């Protein structure tokens, strides 16, 4: 097969990466303009939805020949997390390509790569004369990194979405340091917990019981024991990262401020600690809640707690939110075959250790698979010097070409009761 010149493909990727869509002030309109111009160059229908003003969600459409069949939705988010510019080897919004082909940019892995790879794959399919049977939709959504409430959540619950008659959703996954791509059928749920201790203030020289600091330290010790027990399961190879409960302290807030720092000889009457907890969909949610109330923030120790965010691991019917990976879900086998056809290797289905917008689609009863085709790549999302090698990026386009071809040609009827068999 004749290899085309890859430079325009890489330039388009760089152009998207150079748009600073980092929180707290993502340049959503610039990203939207860029995607819209790409869509028009590909003759895709486009629609801009604004569930919240200033937060555009782009919906592109490649019509299939049989609109009665449920459609394919390829989702990606346009926002990225902030970057500490001075700690990067290359400016995070320069999309610098080094001599070995590494493209450095915030969003190069998470997940501007995926959004553009979908489009590049469609460009190749169109050029080859391919015509989809099922309609293919692409959504470019805002705000994933801050919870997706004004983006994918509103979209998935909207009438516009219902009218798309989506049958399968693809969303983001993770890079893989090995040659095997990773695919995710579920994800852990974020619980952002804040515990607060109170106690009588007193002289810094006095030893007495029930101070706020003592109370919170006891809780922190208890949290750390639990954290270690979960981490040990991973270290011993008994559980995967997505199968245990992770707990990491996000902040500690205590002390009596003074103009020169903190008052040293006064024991504070309040102390707070915040934790990012991630709960697998199959975890015993009740027992964790009990642990928090009884061990981490017991009222007997003058403690209270609240959640800044608490996503339930169960849907409205009390079932864990996950996508089937067995024969009841033909999309999984189709993904495996399509990756293989494009000379890729796929690892075993996993639970995504962090959170993505895929949960909003799963909550609608739809199968959703997390997949970002990046093999032989260190996991650098949210890290300094996030990069993707251009050869991996180009390989990923061919992987999507194969997947989109296979998904959109699949003419079998998928039973409507798929969700009930999970
Ligand atoms: C739950 S909002 C944050 C979303 C982000 N993707 C994360 O996993 O941290
Ligand atoms: Zn992401
Ligand atoms: Zn992210």
TrEMBL record:
Residues engaged in binding Zn(2+) 2: 110, 145, 382
CDD domains referenced in this protein's UniProt entry, alphabetically: M20_AcylaseI_like
Molecular function GO terms recorded: aminoacylase activity; metal ion binding
Keyword Aminoacyl-tRNA synthetase: no
Chain sites annotated for binding Zn(2+) 1: 77, 110, 172
Keyword Cytoplasm: yes
Cofactor, how bound (note): Binds 2 Zn(2+) ions per subunit.
Location of this chain's protein in the cell: Cytoplasm
Enzyme Commission no: 3.5.1.14
GO biological process: amino acid metabolic process
Top enzyme class: hydrolase
Obligatory cofactor(s): Zn(2+)
Record keywords: Cytoplasm, Hydrolase, Metal-binding, Signal, Zinc
Protein name: N-acyl-aliphatic-L-amino acid amidohydrolase
Source organism: Rosa chinensis
């Amino acid at each position: 097969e004749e290899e085309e010149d890859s430079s325009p493909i890489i330039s388009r990727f760089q152009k998207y990466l150079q748009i600073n869509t980092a929180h707290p002030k993502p340049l959503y309109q610039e990203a939207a303009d860029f995607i819209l111009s790409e869509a028009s160059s590909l003759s895709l229908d486009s629609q801009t939805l604004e569930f919240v003003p200033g937060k555009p969600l782009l919906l592109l459409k490649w019509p299939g020949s049989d609109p009665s069949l449920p459609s394919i939705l390829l989702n990606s988010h346009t926002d990225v997390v902030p970057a500490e510019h001075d700690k990067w080897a290359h400016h995070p919004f320069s999309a610098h390509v080094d001599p070995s082909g590494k493209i450095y940019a915030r969003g190069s892995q998470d997940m501007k790569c995926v959004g553009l790879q979908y489009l590049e794959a469609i460009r190749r399919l169109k050029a080859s004369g391919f015509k989809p049977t099922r309609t293919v939709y692409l959504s470019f959504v805002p705000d994933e990194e801050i919870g997706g409430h004004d983006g994918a959540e509103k979209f998935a619950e909207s009438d516009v979405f219902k009218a798309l008659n989506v049958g399968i959703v693809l969303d983001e996954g993770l890079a893989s340091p090995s040659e095997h791509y990773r695919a995710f059928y579920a994800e852990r749920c974020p619980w952002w917990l804040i515990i607060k201790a109170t106690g009588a203030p007193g002289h810094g020289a006095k030893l007495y019981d029930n101070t706020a600091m003592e109370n919170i330290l006891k809780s922190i010790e208890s949290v750390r024991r639990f954290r270690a027990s979960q981490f040990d399961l991973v270290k011993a190879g008994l559980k995967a990262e997505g199968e245990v409960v992770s707990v990491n302290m996000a902040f500690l807030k205590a002390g009596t401020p003074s103009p020169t720092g903190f008052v040293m000889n006064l024991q504070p009457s309040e102390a707070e600690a915040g934790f990012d907890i991630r709960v697998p969909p199959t975890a015993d949610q009740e027992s964790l809640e009990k642990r928090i109330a009884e061990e981490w923030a017991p009222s007997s120790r003058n403690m209270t707690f609240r959640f800044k965010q608490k996503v339930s691991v169960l849907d409205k019917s009390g079932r864990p939110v996950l996508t089937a990976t067995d024969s009841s879900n033909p999309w999984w086998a189709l993904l495996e075959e399509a990756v293989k056809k494009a000379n890729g290797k796929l690892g075993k289905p996993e639970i995504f250790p962090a959170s993505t917008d895929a949960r909003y689609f799963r909550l609608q009863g739809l199968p959703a698979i997390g997949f970002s085709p990046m093999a032989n790549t260190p996991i650098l999302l949210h890290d300094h010097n996030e990069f993707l090698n251009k050869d991996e990026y180009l390989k990923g386009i061919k992987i999507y070409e194969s997947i989109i071809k296979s998904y959109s040609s699949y003419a079998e009827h998928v039973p409507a009761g798929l969700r009930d068999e999970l």
